[in-house]
Amino acid sequence: MLGLSFTLLLLIALVLGMAWQVGKTMVQETNMSHLRYEATLLADEVTQQIDMRIEALERLSEMIGPTDDASWISHQLRQNDSLMAWFEGIVVANRDGKIIADWPAIVGRVGLETAEFEYFRMLRGIRRPYVSEPFVGRASGMPMVLVGVPRFTEQGDFDGFIGGVLSLDSGGIFSRLAKVRLGEKGYAGIATSSGKVLYHPNSSLINADVPSKEFNPWLDLALDGWEGDAVGQLVQGEMALQSYSQVWSAGWVVGLYLPVSQAQLPLADFIRQLWWTWVVLVLLIFPLLWWMLGRVLSPLRHLEKQIGEVGLGHRESVSLATKMQELQQVASTFNRVEDERQLLLGNLQEREAFLDSVLNAAPQGMFVANMKGNITYMNPALLEMLGISTDVPMQTWLTQVHTDDLEGAKDMWLHSLQTGSDFVRQLRFLRSDNELLWLDIHARVVMLSQDGHTLGLVGVVKDITERRQQEAIQRWEAEHDPLTGLLNRRGFERRLEEAFADFQKTSTPSALLLFDLDHFKPINDEGGHALGDEMLRRIAQVVAWEVRRSDHVARQGGDEFGVLLPSCTLAQARRIAESLRQSVSEISVTHAGKEYMVTLSIGVTTFDDIDTSVEDVLARADAGSYKAKEHGRDGVVVNMPNDDVMELFDQHK
Q: 3-state DSSP call for residue 6?
């Protein structure tokens, strides 16, 4: 019922909208035609008024003749007093522009010089009748125009003019415009081609400038001589129908303006009445429609009720007592679909029970996630592995993933959800009992084979903590000396290669110390290898203590040692080498009442731009160590590239 009501209202709105659009077009065309007719009629009337006044002034000019006799001219003006019905005053000027006679006589007007006035220059130049630009009368203070006719001598030379003064108030020549009625807001106006307002219902605008071209381009075209119709903006800001016509004899433009809102007002009233008529009609037919729909939809309500009962399990099928073949077909189809659904539901329940048994019995940790990325199921093995319960929300146990592994795992998880690729990741997980686990996770996206629809992800989780610990021990043993715990030759050379690569890329300075033990052989020969091993362990502890935490100390074999000093200058390396030499010289071991001590012969060098490999650096440091032995042992020798003489630091010399 609501749908039908909405459809009716939409149809009514559509019909009324179309009627409004068509009506607006027709109303605009009709009003435009009326404005065009009125504008032409007004322009013709004003043209006729101007032409009659010009003809009257020309006849008066013929009566006066070519004379400058002020008495004679004044007599003729008084004899033609009837012209005062058309003019507010008549003036006569000589060839120099000086007023020599006027009627009615006004003090100060005779003798007025007009040579510099616009209308005198135009009359003398064009030598034909001319209507002046508006000006304010001296005596009356009212806006006026002058209709002027040139006078000529018998030889045809310019001899002054006869002018009739017209007031621009609501009377006189514009009395017809004052009576024009275009509704409440429509009006007529006249302007000069130069852009001065001659007539407007608002008298304060007379003699003012017309609106700018940007504000009303159609009026600007009319001032240039265009006649026509348009829709444009008024001074008040509202849109209006506009029509323009020309008064060619005076150089004036007649404009008629009718606001669009006023032009469409009758149409709006009609549409409003039509709307309420439709509303009343719809309200009247609603009860009838409601009753008819109730009769038609009664079997559908029964069908809906029985379908609901089937869904709740209160009945197995639907049965309708109706003659509508369509509803009987719907009921039959529903019963068939329900039978198939029950069969599929039974199979699905069997499969779910089987899958639950498999997942619960699986010794490996397994989980299921939906396509939003949320884990919806974890089997008992996984819950036991992680040490969490089923009621712990995902957001809580995610915080137990190691912070260094969490962001990378999230990025890979989102990538798998978006692309359908497998999720393979190893990460650390901190159980609630603070045991750190290493987990290997492999999840695969599950899709329907028919349409490729993604269902979610199924994953397997393995505890690889023991394997990772064993791998870590193996990696440590592969690069460390079992006697001293220092780096062995293999581990030391790998770190040398890494430091040398950083030096080539970023010019990071690094230093290298190589040394072996002076007087170590008697310890092994007289005290045995156990005593020698004890000395090596003590030396390793002292050397590791004296260097920085970022430095790498290695026992490369026998009594040979190396120290890599990353980000270390040569001056720092010298101080560290001297500290090592001094500290080791104080170490001793005792056997059979005899004390044994050793010293260091240390070679020092740094990476240099001429080095092509770490072998060049090792060779320089080794040469420095041999040089220290040649100088009596227990010393430090700095060996740098291109040095003619090695720099020797000898404590005992």
A: helix
This prediction's pTM: 0.43
For position 543, what pLDDT does the model report? 92
Cα 265 from Cα 392, distance rounded (Å): 71
**CATH for the 172-263 domain, from 3.40.50.880, 1.10.10.10, 3.30.565.10, 3.30.450.20:** 3.30.450.20
Pick 468 or 4 by higher pLDDT: 468
Beta-bridge partner residues of 233? 239
Whether the Cβ atoms of residue 439 and residue 463 lie closer than 8 Å to each other? yes
**At 651, is the pLDDT very low, low, confident or very high (cuts 50, 70, 90)?**
very low
Residue with tokens 């209160």: 314
Distance CA 516, CA 560 (A): 4
- The torsion angles phi and psi of 45, rounded to 5 degrees, stand at -65, -45
Fold of 479-645: Alpha-Beta Plaits (3.30.70)
Return the number of other C-beta atoms located less than 10 Å from residue 203's C-beta. Answer: 12
Digit-coded pLDDT (tens) for 432-465: 888 888 888 888 887 655 555 666 788 889 888 8
Question: Can 172-263 and 362-469 be said to share one CATH topology?
Answer: yes
Strands in 153-238 per DSSP E: 158-167, 187-192, 197-199, 228-233
Kindly give the residue spans of alpha helices, DSSP state H, lying in 370-488.
380-386, 394-397, 403-419, 465-479
Numbers of helices and strands, H then E, in the chain: 16, 24
Average per-residue pLDDT in the chain?
Answer: 83
Question: Could you identify the residue written with the tokens 């119709």?
Answer: 229
In 418-532 the beta strands, taken as DSSP E runs, fall at 423-430, 436-447, 454-463, 510-518
The whole-angstrom separation of Cα 308 and Cα 304 is 6
**Contact indicator for 182, 256 with CB cutoff of 8 Å:** yes
Degrees, nearest 5: CA angle 502-508-514: 85
Q: Is the pLDDT of residue 650 over 60?
A: no
Asked which of 9-13, 274-278, 614-618 is least confident by mean pLDDT, the reply is: 9-13
Backbone φ and ψ for 164, nearest 5 degrees, come out as -110, 130
- The two structure tokens encoding residue 60: 């008066």
> What is the maximum alpha-carbon separation in the chain?
167
For the domain made up of 362-469, the CATH class stated in words is alpha beta
pLDDT 10s digits, 360-398: 767 788 888 888 888 888 888 888 888 888 788 877 788
Rounded to an integer, the average pLDDT of 318-346 is 76
pLDDT at 22: 65
Peptide bond just before 393 cis, omega within 30 deg: no
Domain-wise residue ranges, the chain: 172-263, 362-469, 479-645
Q: Is 249 helix (H, G, I), strand (E, B) or coil?
A: coil
The angle, 0 to 180 degrees and rounded to 10, between the axes of the packed helices 265-312 and 2-64 is 170
| CA separation, residue 379 to residues 397, 405, 435 (Å) | 15, 23, 21
